[in-house]
Every structure is written in structure tokens, then in C-alpha cells.
Amino acid sequence: MTNTPIQRDSFIERDARRRALALLDPGTFRELVDPFDRLSSPWLPRQGIVAQADDGVVVARGTLDSQPAVVLAIEGAFQGGSMGEVSGAKIAGALELAVDDNRRGIPTRAVIVFETGGVRLQEANLGLAAIAEIHASIHALRTFGPVIGISAGVVGCFGGMSIAAGMCSYLLVTREARLGLNGPSVIEQEAGVEEYDSRDRPFIWGLTGGQQRKATGLVDACLDDDTTAIRAQVLAWLRADAPTPQRSEQIEYYLERLMHVDVTNQPSPEDVRVLYAAARAGDPS
């Protein structure tokens, strides 16, 4: 008897363009502002950094489940998926066009694939302004239907773009993904290695990894790294209404959870899970 190897179509191993291609209905992929348009960052070459023709963001129009859709995929291999003036404007502009479509009666949906460390330090203020526009566009678009976020790995999703992910109607991660406002190296730099050791991978994934984020209710699904399963979940959410209230609207709930964190001790992953489990059970302690 021979063992048949498991066939797996990895989503993580795809680059941004192939992720967008895999999510959209077959034969409908059409890239907007593609690399041949040569729209790259004007600021990186001035700092001795080679720019990329698409500035690390793929904007793809097509259909999902035969409905108009736009997929925005961030390329983590370019500058850690960081957001600058051009890359941020591409995402914000595409979301704004989707909002315009919906206002004109064309129900255009959006999926954002997050693979980003947040704002690009070389373009800090410009990147922050673009991320703010992305936040506003997600907020406007989700009034018409669910906005879907995906964070698969390898970079994860941090900084201002983690706020964008949190604003999505539904958020999907893999076990390999990480989601947090500040990256491990930033926390270690600011608070010291005693507070957060960026080399302690089990500790980092225990607090910010996909399984932990699902266990604490900060994401809606944690799936295996399988393209077919991820696409199926996206389609299921697009067929459903957006949740009410949406996660980013539950301000009092999350503030109340933070009030119960013991800041005198480093919480373990189990401590965090217990904290959220108690809240879901109706126990404020």
C-alpha cells in the first residue's frame, strides 16, 4: 500500500498577483495600474532604494461569484509590504471607486489581502495619510455590503494597516499569520527585550498568531493554508450580510476588556484567551 501525497495549493506561497488571480472568478482578472504603467514611488530612489513598478500593490478587477469585485493584494516581498504614497493611493482609490459603483447601483465588493508591516518609514507622513484614506474608504464601503480581509503570512499585518484589517466586516487568517498593531521588533526596541523578545517565535505566535486571534474573537476564521478553502470562505461571507454590529463598532466591549488586563505581569496566551472567554460568557471579570 502506498501513501498518496496530499495535494495542497498554498495561498501563502503565492505572490500578490497570483493571490488576486486565485480569488477572482476564472477568466475575469483584469489588473488596474499594472507594472507597465510604471507608477512607482518617487521617493525611494532618492534614498538609494530601488523602486518597484507597481509599488508593491496589485489592484485587480473581476467578479466573485459572478458579482463585480475588486481584490487588493499587498506584496510582502517588496519593502515588507509597507504602505507609501503610491501603494496606499492605489488601495484607497480602488476602494473609493467601489463606493462610487455601489452608489450608482453596481454592487461592487472588495477583498483586501494584507501582507504588510504598516506605513513605509521612508514615506512616513505620505503613507500615514494614505492609510487614513484607506480606513475612511473601508468604513464607507462596508455600509453597502461586507468588506473581506485576508492575512495569510509570511509578513503578517501590523501598524496602521492592522487597523484597516480590524475595520473589515470579516477577517480571515491562517495559522501562520500574525496580526498586531506594533511589530515584535518595534515593541522590543521601545520596551526592551524583557517585555517582548522578538526572537521568541512561539511566544510571538502565541500572542499574535492566527489561532490565538481566532480564539479571542479578533478574527472570524483561521483556516489551513489552502487556496480553495480560503476562496470558499470568502464567497460564503460575500453571500451573507455584514455582521451587526461590526467588530470596530464594539468600542465599549474592547475598552472593558483592556481594563481587566493586569499590566504588572506579562500575560500568557492562555491568560488572554481566558480574558475574552469570560467576556463571551457574560462574566466581566
TrEMBL record:
Query: EC annotation?
Result: 2.1.3.10
Q: Which principal EC class is assigned to this enzyme?
A: transferase
Q: Which Pfam families match?
A: Carboxyl_trans (PF01039)
TM spans (from-to): 147-173
Question: What NCBIfam families does its record include?
Answer: malonate_beta, PRK07189.1
GO terms (BP aspect): carbohydrate metabolic process; fatty acid biosynthetic process; malonyl-CoA biosynthetic process
> Which ranges carry the CoA carboxyltransferase N-terminal domain?
1-102
MF GO annotations = acetyl-CoA carboxylase activity; carboxy-lyase activity; transferase activity
> Residue span of the signal peptide, if any?
none
Report the domain of life of the source organism: Bacteria
Q: Which UniProt keywords apply?
A: Membrane, Transferase, Transmembrane, Transmembrane helix
Give the protein's recorded name. Malonyl-S-ACP:biotin-protein carboxyltransferase MADC
